[in-house]
Specification:
By secondary structure, this protein is an alpha+beta fold. The protein has a single domain (2-145), classed as Roll (Ubiquitin Conjugating Enzyme). 37% of the residues lie in helices and 18% in strands. It has a four-stranded antiparallel beta sheet. A hairpin with a 2-residue loop joins strand 1 and strand 2. The protein is globular, with a radius of gyration of 15 Å. The chain starts with a helix and ends with a helix. The mean pLDDT is 95. It comes from Stentor coeruleus. Residues 1-147 form the UBC core domain. This is UBC core domain-containing protein.
C-alpha cells in the first residue's frame, strides 16, 4: 500500500485537481489533507475548505473516510461532523479507484450537489424548494467558517 500511496501523492502534488492542494498530515501516509478553494460560480466561491481523508489498512480495497474539517452548508455533508455522504463515494468503489477520483468527486458535488444522496434533509429541501435561501445560507457559512 505504501508504494501506491507515495505514487498517488507524487501525482497529486505535481498535478493537483483544480482549486486543490494535497498534503499528508504529520508524515503519516494514511492521513491526507486536501485544501480546496470554493469553485467559481458556486455558493462556495471565495471559501477555503479543508478536507480530511483517512485511509484504512485495506486501501485500495476499501475507500478512505472523507470529512470536511471546515464547516460547510451542503446537503451531502453533515453539518455537525463534516462527514460526507458515504453513498456518494463508497458505491462503486474498487481498487482501480484512487484518491484523485474521490477528490474530483467531492469537487463535482460542490459544483452540483446531489440532493438524492442527502445527509441533511433540511438543506436538501431548502435547495430544491427555495434555492435563493440555500445559496444565501451557504454563502453566509462561507463567510463565517471558510475565510
Amino acid at each position: 500500500m505504501q508504494g501506491r500511496l507515495n505514487k498517488e501523492l507524487a501525482d497529486l502534488s505535481s498535478n493537483p485537481p483544480d482549486n486543490c492542494t494535497v498534503s499528508i498530515v504529520d508524515n503519516d501516509i494514511t492521513r491526507w489533507r486536501v485544501d480546496i478553494n470554493g469553485p467559481a460560480g458556486t455558493p462556495y466561491e471565495g471559501g477555503h475548505f479543508v478536507l480530511s481523508l483517512t485511509l484504512p489498512a485495506q486501501y485500495p480495497f476499501k475507500p478512505p473516510e472523507a470529512q470536511f474539517v471546515t464547516k460547510i452548508y451542503h446537503p451531502n455533508v453533515l453539518k455537525d461532523s463534516g462527514e460526507i455522504c458515504k453513498d456518494m463515494y463508497q458505491t462503486g468503489w474498487g481498487p482501480v479507484k484512487n484518491i484523485r477520483w474521490i477528490i474530483e468527486l467531492i469537487l463535482s458535488f460542490l459544483i452540483n450537489p446531489a440532493p438524492e444522496h442527502s445527509v441533511e434533509a433540511d438543506i436538501s429541501r431548502q435547495m430544491i424548494e427555495n434555492h435563493d435561501a440555500y445559496v444565501a445560507t451557504a454563502r453566509q457559512w462561507v463567510n463565517q467558517y471558510a475565510r
